[in-house]
Amino acid sequence: MNNKKFPTTLAILLFSGSLLIVSAVIQNTTHLALTRTKTPGVKLEAPTPVSTENDDLQPQMSPKEIQPINNFIDMAGHETSESKRTTVTPPAAGNLSQTDAVILAATSVRKLYDVDIVKLQMRVILSDTQTSPPWKWAVHFSPYNAKTLEGQGKEFWEYDVLIDPINGMVVNTTAINNALKRTPISASAASTIYKDARWINAAITILTDKQKESRKIATAALINTETNDKHGMVAVQMMLEDGSSYTAEMRYPDQSLRCLTYEPAKVVK
Predict the structure, then answer these.
(1) Alpha-carbon dihedral angle through residues 122, 249, 111, 19, given to the nearest 10 degrees
(2) Is the per-residue pLDDT at 41 higher than 50?
(3) Which of 165, 177, 224, 257 sits a CA distance of 20 to 30 A from 193?
(4) Rounded alpha-carbon distances, angstroms, from residue 47 to 64, 100, 106, 151, 187
C-alpha cells in the first residue's frame, strides 16, 4: 500500500508471523481518544455473521483462515507489566470491530482474486479517508517477504480493502502489483473498446460470479474513458436498481480486475 494514502494519525495493528507489533502513531491528539485495554478479545468461530445490507458479503472463513486471527487475540491477551498495550479509538468509528473488518477484508480478497490469505501478512488501519463517513477500516495484505522481493526486483501482489465501519460494507478492494507495466490505450484501440461489449460483459461476470451480487443490474457503461485510457485501464460502472453501484476497473488488454468499488444508494433527506 502506498504510504501516501494514509494520514499521519493512525492506529496500526501489524501481524507478522508470531510477532505482534501494536503501535499508535499520533501526531494530532485532538482527534483521538486513548484508552487502556487489559482484557483479551473474543475468539472467532467460522462463520461469524456481520451486519450488512447484503447477505452475500457475510464472511465464510474456514477454521484454518481464522486461526491466525485467534493467534493474534491470544497474544494480545498476554499483557505483562513490562509491556502495556494502548489502543487508539477515533470518535464515531462505527460499530464494526477490527476483527470483523479483517474477516470481511479477507473474504473479499479471496473471492475476487482467489488468494489464500493465510500465506499473507496483514496490516489493519483505522484511517481518516476524508469521505463520508470519514473513518474507514483499511486492511492491507502482502507477502511476508515483500521487502526482500521488492529489493530483488521480483514481482509480487498486495491487496487493499476499505470497509465502512458503520454498515460493514466493503467499499473498495484493490489488487496491487508494482512490477506490472501499464499499456496506455491508443485512440484507435479506445475506439474499438467503446464498441466492444466484452469489457462490459467481463465486468458483469466479475460482479455476478465473483462478488456474488444478486441484485439486478439496471445499466452498465464505460466511465472516465479519457483518464483511464492514459493509464491503461477500462472502468465499467454498473448501476443497480436500488440506486447503488459498483465500478470494476480492469487492466488493458487482459481484462484482469484491478479494483472493485461499491457506492451505496444516496439517501434523500
Answers:
(1) 0
(2) no
(3) 177
(4) 12, 11, 13, 38, 48
